């Protein structure tokens, strides 16, 4: 029997899924597939990585729902090229459907898979699903990608129509699912992981949080942000539904969703930013890269309470408040003169909501090296940031209970001298 395969990746939901909907409307029964990509998983350092547990449990849930509909979900662990060669042997595959991915590795992987499929005359059909506008869909007057957020966001909003937010129906086409069961489902142990106890926030959007977002989002003690990053990252929430709600409830929150698309557009059009500064001159900066100071930053032992609170929150929960992310990033780069790529890699390891484009874009923003970045001479003063956003120190005391006692370390660097040092280093690099 000829079948179509739908390959789930960063779109782990059975409803309002562009590629899945298209597959279900094809003339072939659809066999859903997920691959635990060994190439990606082998790079993870922590056996109890909570993101792997989250993906695994989501796949289990999706599989149960598909089994209730009389179908199943294939789940393999291995290298995608090897698995696709096996699938072509095991099944009479007529078509393959999936959704676009914009990261460098994903593009390379998909090119390799397409080459394999082409040798068997199997078409690979891909769809836009994780963003409203992608790649070169929002362009400036010169027909070029924007590199500044504000005009990009204005153009993004002016182009938006209700059609862009229309949901893709999947449930009504479940009758076209592949009928049958399979036992293929590796365990976490098979993949070298153990279950993480870390709590994953809900994918439900709280209206009160969004409505009050603009007023409360900068105050870390209030916990007044949505925590939806992980669900956007792995597609357990639909971007179309979130933008629909953002338009109704709060434009500031809508802008945050547009920032995510801005950085994904930057990565798609300027892939060099993954390893290099968007502004090449910033790759000439002579970083100190002191490993002992970096470790103290990672551990939340810098002697700067707001910085340490953020790092400890990250290490314990996989989340850090948005405002504090800027403060901790600025401190690592500007106060310690440590390469932003070190911090980016640590956040990539620890953040539940890690997403390459946004992580890279925000770290380069903090470093001054990115598109539409903060000016290089802007150096966050942790004391002033604390005074402004955590005046009662409620956030600090939650994560750094020993603050103000002899058990808390002295500052590892003095603010003014650190500021002078980094400005000198930046000026030297940018003038050379």
Automatic annotation (TrEMBL):
Reported EC number(s) for this entry are 4.1.99.3
Q: Which SUPFAM superfamilies match?
A: Cryptochrome/photolyase FAD-binding domain (SSF48173), Cryptochrome/photolyase, N-terminal domain (SSF52425)
Q: Where is the Photolyase/cryptochrome alpha/beta domain?
A: 2-132
| Family matches, as InterPro entries | Crypto/Photolyase_FAD-like_sf (IPR036134), Crypto/Photolyase_N_sf (IPR036155), Cryptochr/Photolyase_FAD-bd (IPR005101), Cryptochrome/DNA_photolyase_1 (IPR002081), DNA_photolyase_1_CS_C (IPR018394), DNA_photolyase_N (IPR006050), Rossmann-like_a/b/a_fold (IPR014729)
Principal EC category: lyase
Could you tell me the keywords of this UniProt record? Chromophore, FAD, Flavoprotein, Lyase
BP GO terms, sorted: nucleobase-containing compound metabolic process; response to light stimulus; response to stress
Per the record, the similarity remark reads: Belongs to the DNA photolyase family.
Record-given protein name: Deoxyribodipyrimidine photo-lyase
């Amino acid at each position: 029997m000829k079948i179509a395969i739908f390959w789930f990746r960063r779109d782990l939901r059975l409803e309002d899924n562009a590629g899945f909907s298209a597959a279900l409307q094809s003339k072939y029964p659809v066999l859903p597939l997920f691959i635990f990509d060994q190439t990606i998983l082998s790079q993870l350092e922590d056996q109890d990585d909570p993101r792997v547990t989250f993906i695994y449990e989501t796949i289990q849930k999706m599989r149960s729902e598909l089994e209730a509909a009389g179908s199943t979900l294939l789940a393999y662990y291995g290298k995608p090229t090897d698995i696709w060669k096996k699938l072509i042997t095991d099944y009479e595959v007529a078509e393959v459907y999936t959704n676009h991915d914009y990261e460098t590795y994903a593009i390379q992987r998909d090119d390799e898979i397409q080459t394999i499929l082409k040798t068997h005359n199997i078409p690979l059909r891909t769809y836009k699903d994780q963003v409203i506008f992608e790649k070169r869909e929002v362009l400036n007057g010169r027909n070029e990608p924007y590199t500044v957020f504000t005009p990009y966001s204005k153009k993004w909003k002016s182009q938006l129509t209700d059609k862009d937010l229309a949901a893709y129906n999947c449930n009504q086409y479940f009758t076209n699912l592949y009928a049958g069961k399979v036992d293929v489902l590796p365990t976490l142990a098979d993949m070298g992981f153990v279950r993480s106890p870390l709590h994953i926030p809900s994918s439900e959007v709280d209206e009160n949080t969004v409505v009050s977002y603009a007023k409360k989002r900068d105050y870390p003690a209030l916990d007044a942000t949505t925590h939806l990053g992980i669900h956007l990252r792995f597609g357990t929430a639909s971007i179309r539904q979130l933008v629909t709600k953002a338009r109704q409830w709060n434009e500031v929150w809508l802008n945050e969703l547009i920032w995510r698309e801005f950085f994904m557009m930057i990565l798609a059009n300027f892939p060099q930013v993954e390893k290099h500064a968007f502004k090449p001159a910033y790759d000439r900066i002579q970083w100190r890269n002191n490993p002992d100071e970096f470790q103290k930053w990672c551990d939340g032992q810098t002697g700067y309470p707001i910085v340490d609170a953020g790092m400890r929150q990250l290490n314990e929960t996989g989340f850090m408040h948005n405002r504090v992310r800027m403060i901790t990033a600025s401190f690592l780069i500007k106060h310690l003169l440590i390469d932003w790529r070190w911090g980016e890699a640590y956040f990539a390891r620890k953040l539940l909501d890690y997403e390459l484009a946004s992580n890279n874009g925000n770290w380069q923003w903090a470093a001054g090296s990115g598109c539409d970045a903060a000016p290089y001479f802007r150096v966050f003063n942790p004391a002033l940031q604390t005074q402004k956003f955590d005046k009662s120190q409620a956030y600090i005391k939650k994560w750094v209970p020993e603050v103000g006692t002899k058990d808390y370390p002295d500052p590892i660097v003095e603010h003014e001298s650190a500021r002078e040092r980094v400005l000198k280093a930046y000026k030297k690099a940018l003038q050379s």
